[in-house]
Amino acid sequence: MAFFQAASWHEGEVAIHKRTRVGGYDNPTSPFLTPRAASMIQRYPMMAIGTLDDDGRPWCTVWGSDHLPIAQPVAQSVMGVRTTVDASFDPVVQAIYKGKDDGEVMREEGNGRLMAGLSIHLEERGRVKVAGQVIAGALTVNDAVADSSELKGDLQSGRSGEVQLVVKIDQSLGNCPKYLNKKHIVAADPKPRLLSSSPHLTQKAIDLVQSADLFFVTSTHKHEDMDCNHRGGPPGFIRVQQPTNSDEGSTIVWPEYSGNNLYQTLGNLESTPHAGLVIPDFETGDVLYVTGDTETLVGAAASKVITKSNLAVSLKVTAARLVENGLPFRGRLMDDASQGRSPYNPRVRYLTSEKTDAFAKTAGDGPPTTAKLIKKTKITPTVTRYRFALADPGVFGPWKPGQYVAMDLAAEMDMGYSHMRDDDPTSLNDDYIRTFTVSSIPNSLGLHGEEFEVTVRKVGNVTKWLEWQREGMCEIGIRGFGGEFVFEPHSRNAFIAAGIGITPLLGQMESLDLDKLKVSWSVGIRDVALPLDILTQYPGLKDSLTICLTGDESLLDGEGGKEKAKLQELLDTGVQVLRRRVTKEDLVVWETEVDNWYLCTAPAMRKIVQEWMPGTTIVYENFDY
Predict the structure, then answer these.
(1) Backbone φ, ψ for residue 133 (5° rounding)
(2) What is the DSSP string of 274-287?
(3) Is there a single domain that holds both residue 546 and residue 471?
(4) How does pLDDT run across 179-198, given as a tens digit for each residue?
């Protein structure tokens, strides 16, 4: 059994540990290629490689194939790599082989060229980091592909080739599987074409970035050491800030999700704020390489740039290459219900320039006031109405009809840092701020307007927690009221709602002319008690409302026929009930009778309605706040 003393943290790592208030960890990196790491790299079908070019800029690439192994140990702490690559535009290939592509072995002088690698198996959510020095290699170009000097229009065509690489490994570390989206990797022949080399990213490059669910990043500590790692999440988690000046480089921003708290990449960026990224399109084989200058944002600085983030990185692009069909592999998402998406993925966090988050937390701040739960009414098996009383209603002043309330439940639910939480994976990046539309009319409850109601469907851990709370025994933080989803009073308005999306209407009932209102509401039959409850509160809504009730009555079996009785009660109110989904004809027939259209549905239905009514301006409630 081998024993070794833990490596010390370098000054950059110490600095980021202080900034993020973590510490007390030993550096778990092994100063050699461990037997476990050696076994992993032989089985893993992808490897990201990072190195420095002759100008000291970090670049990163990713290679892959289902023809294994692409990497394997060839001696003690020596790794060999052999695989197909883009021989013309891959910046790591160019940095290492410098155009020498005749298959002759080249050897690095001195200690060798710095490199870092990440061997990764997406189907197993396994990865292992390695770092060391390139000591030898060879590149053989495939002459069957067009010569790199050939031009097709304004696109430069390149060639594929086979690399052989020998690397002396002096660091290895196994890593956690969070934020990896499972994909099956197969080999593909690169047929690279350089689409752009501008640091001001083209729209095609921006589209690639904003659809990616994985990228690889390489960094260096004072050109003495390197690191290569991955960043994964939901598609769209990487954002782009595009300057109006086309001569200026774009900025790529991403949130740093909760990880293992080692911060080796961020530690390098503290001491040497430059990084190289490779962002692959697994489906098309297109790939974006960028290198640039970085800034690590902590606490309030992060939340000012990218919403709901306490830690983020921005990279100002100084050089880039967008290559069509440059990857030597393709990746296919899995066929399971989640398509292999990581259960740890949080929701996409947007740039503050893209979406305003008025109630985002900054480091260490607390909610301005609290509210006590004073009444809870279960309406359907999944929908509950909660009444709260503000401790100090003067903090915010009166809220407007149609607004939402931002609740902060961190004090009750946040369990602090945890590396893994398989029982509740998304909680690791949860800020526990939730926004619910106020479903009561302002100043209609309480003596001083301090009471308000929200009608909520049980979705996720916060609403599940709320269901367990007892009246008079629960007090939560309130960050404020916001939103501008307000109907034009006394105008001819049409409202298209689905499920719980009816709630923005309820808080505005006092100000609307119901004779000029038309409402199309899609409701699942299991929630039949919800429209019955609302018509009991607001019987005047009956003549303005059309309910599209979906689902078979067999779904109401059980509970001694109570749910079927509620269906009959709903029918007895005289409200128009259609036993089908809403159709285009249901809406377009209103066009001559409506001035303003409003919609509150899931995004998929919103898209369908907008396609039904091209050219019609539809104001919609956005669930991304």
Answers:
(1) -135, 140
(2) EEEEEEE-TTT--E
(3) no
(4) 999 999 999 999 999 999 99
